[in-house]
Amino acid sequence: MPPALIFDVDGTLAETEELHRQAFNQTFAAAGLPWHWDRALYRRLLAVAGGKERLAAFVAAQAPERAGEVDIPALHAAKTARYTQMIAAGAVTLRPGIARLLAEARQAGVPVAIATTTSLPNVEALLRATLGEAGPGAFAVIGAGDVVPAKKPAPDIYAHVLRRLAIPASACIAFEDSTIGLAAARAAGIPTVVTPSLYTDEDDFTGALAVVSDLGDPQAPYRHLAGAGAGDGMVTIDTLARWSAAVEGRRSP
Length: 253
Prior knowledge:
Layout: E1 4-7, H1 17-30, H2 39-45, H3 51-62, H4 72-88, H5 98-108, E2 112-115, H6 120-131, E3 141-143, H7 156-165, E4 172-176, H8 179-187, E5 192-194, E6 210-212, E7 224-227, H9 237-251
Parallel strand pairs: 1-2, 1-4, 2-3, 4-5, 5-6
Antiparallel strand pairs: 6-7
Organism: Rhodovastum atsumiense
Protein name: HAD-IA family hydrolase
GO molecular function, one term: hydrolase activity
């Protein structure tokens, strides 16, 4: 079995990006800023990882006249407060199969970790809202936010998590939903399962270990899109172990 499972958060653990978009727009309105990010624009902005970085890129490209007057860290902090309130109110649930796979990993003694560019308060709010107050403690390592200077697609956050886990990259499986997340995990040497999300369904996932609609649950098995294995079913610890063994077999001389 894979020694560790490493999860991205936004779009992977839960479909959160639409909530982030709404929180940004509410924050802009409250601050008296004449900005509104529609879905098409937000899809393009997601090419920049990290909320503060995304906001800075938008200001630089679309509102350079505001560059000297917008306090990006403060604006992002206000957005984070709105987002965490929405999460705490139950605005999202985990994607299909996530809770089941986490339970399987716990029962099998497989450590789970998080590698994300979103801020730690966002992560902890989501985990508490969906897994209970003990949710954050279910993860051996949570790599989030600004713990590393370079955001995805740089592999830094994965390298950080691997160091904390003390497990080689080739022995792990990562879960991502986007091209930039896949690039980060692959650059760190980690085989990656992709579950495309609302804003990443048109991304290019070449190089993924497998691409599936979701991880599946007993009521709604996943739809297999590309990569390892074949057919429908559920992505289980045993499934991942087979896929991981196949990767190792291809690496062996």
